[in-house]
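Quick entry between incubations.
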Amino acid sequence: MSITYLEAIREAQAHALRDDPRVFIYGQDIGAFGGAFKATKNLAKEFPGRVIDAPISEDAMVGLAVGAAIEGMRPIIEMQFADFSTVGFNQIVNQAATLFWRTQVPCPITVRLPFGGTSGSGPFHSQSLETIYAHYPGLVVLTPATVEDAYSMLLEAVAIDDPVIFCEHKYLYYHLKAEKLPSEALPVGKARIAREGRDMTIVAYSAMVHEALEAAAELVPEGWEIEVVDLRSVKPLDTDTVMASVARTGRLLCVGEAWPWGGVTAEVIARVASEGFGLLDVPPQRLNAKDTPVPYHPNLWTAHRPTAHAVAAAARKLLRL
Amino acid sequence: MLQTVLDADFVGDATSFRDTHLTAYRFMLLARMLDDKCAGLYRAGKIHGGVFIGRGQEALSVAIGLALKKTDVFAPLIRDTAGRLAFGEPVVDAVRTYLGSVLGPMRGRDGNVHRGRPKEGYLPMVSHLGAMISVVNGMLFARRMKGVTGTVGAACIGDGGTATGSFHEALNQAAIEKLPLVLIVANNHYAYSTPNDREFACRNLTDKAAGYGVESHSVDGTDLSACLKIVGDAVARARAGRGPQMVVATLLRLCGHGEHDDASYIDPKLKASPAGRDCLKVAEEHLLRQKWADAAAFAALRGEIVREIEEAVAQVQREPAPDPFTEDWRAISTGHLNEGHE
Ligand SMILES: Cc1ncc(C[n+]2csc(CCOP(=O)(O)OP(=O)(O)O)c2C)c(N)n1
Ligand SMILES: [Mg+2]
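Done. Structure below.
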């Protein structure tokens, strides 16, 4: 048997629905139709009344989830694409994210964001928004890179008493497969060493972990051993694991699919530079998408986002310093 | 005479017409005097941030506060001191939030009109207009899922707030789900300084409800009797399962947008129009005409309310303010997931 990243997300939701009567899912086309990506396929039938079609009203979708959470439910909101979560942005950052701090009433909602670029998706179906949500206090922001993490972290997201922005990469939906679902997992908040190495640390998350791993493989024949750290969660950010890796390698490259201004990669570098300056042999570098909307045509798209080749090229430069 | 009536708990299930009016009047006066006290404290420099009051809107506000049961959901906005008190908010909660007492429901983390107790069905507004309505929807939706019946949720909004996307999304959502939502729209003719004709172009705000298949009702917001009746009926219809209800009240804000604002832009013609009547005076005259109260009773009531408010203010002024050194500075409840904490 093998299971894809997308199926893992579906299975995690089925598991959550089965285990906890407080869980329900609300989103566009997720009922009988099973969702734009089929992440809720058959769930409406299996769990009647708990997998509910929403109107195209992202603001009201999130608002409803917050109200339900106050009443003790554990709603999962499926955004059809991460890009459309901006319409619900206000409810996420001003309502959900402030509730506990203002009132001591926790807000256990999970907002699933199918995000990131896929060929031909263009400016409005490709965005990476983890940075913008991580900027706000009161949110947990998860970016699973593996089938196992997609499953276990989504289950943990539903169990967490706070609003979780669950960034699931659309490119990984069908590309990633695992033999089976995990029975245990690293907890949320811990990064993972995806590949051990001694010459340089590449910090990445979500789909970029795989570009980084491919780049590391590309550099093996040239004699380089690259360590790849998968952040898993961008907020909280596991600075300790990153710092320990940089202590071993002395070189740091951060890779993110989001836009370059500020963001997760900038945050990692700022932390390492301020808390671990002495660990660095050379100035840390980062690689992001270009500072334009995400292009439609594959020729442009593959040049817009970091690819394994681009990561390898950036790594080579850094290794020569 | 007022006294005996006021001592009893009539909230929600008042049976007598007269008693309901007297109870409502007491909350209106309490709200007016509490608002005035807060405005005074603001001018004396005792309040950090703004003060927003509901002068001229007490009749409408109290009507929804009274029509709800304690087990219902209430999401008031900035001009709902009367509704909050009628729904059950103690005076001291309001004073503590305005003065930033750490013992208040918001513990100095949020202030003034941003107060509530979500677990008691009393939602603390965020500033973003329109945003509370879908939260009320969510609470009603969840209750239905849990099998809780007979519950109603009310959200208040101004004429200006009906132009937000959130308002429309939430109204449509409530209609689709046939939720027992009661939307109370106070058309006080201005959104801050902006008059109605720059906020909407439909003939009446009730037209907005029609677009979503929602029942709507108009009421003279300066007339307590009319507000009690129309709002009470709307709540009853929602409770009876007729789906969301919208009530649009016509009235005038008899104060600035906030206490920083002199409201010099308000059209004198509107002030002289029926919408510009002071609902508190109208209610008072009504009570006198009906011989349900007399001047002595009003004077006694005022004296009692002054004492209640002054006691609350004096008490809160002795209470501790929040301490940045003992503040935990954590925005999420899961301790180890806060940044910078193990
Ligand atoms: C979404 C949003 N935009 C702007 C504001 C700033 N603001 C606060 S109150 C207000 C006017 C509101 O007018 P209305 O809804 O008519 O209520 P009223 O103050 O008249 O009671 C504005 C513009 C806000 N709170 N929320
Ligand atoms: Mg107004």
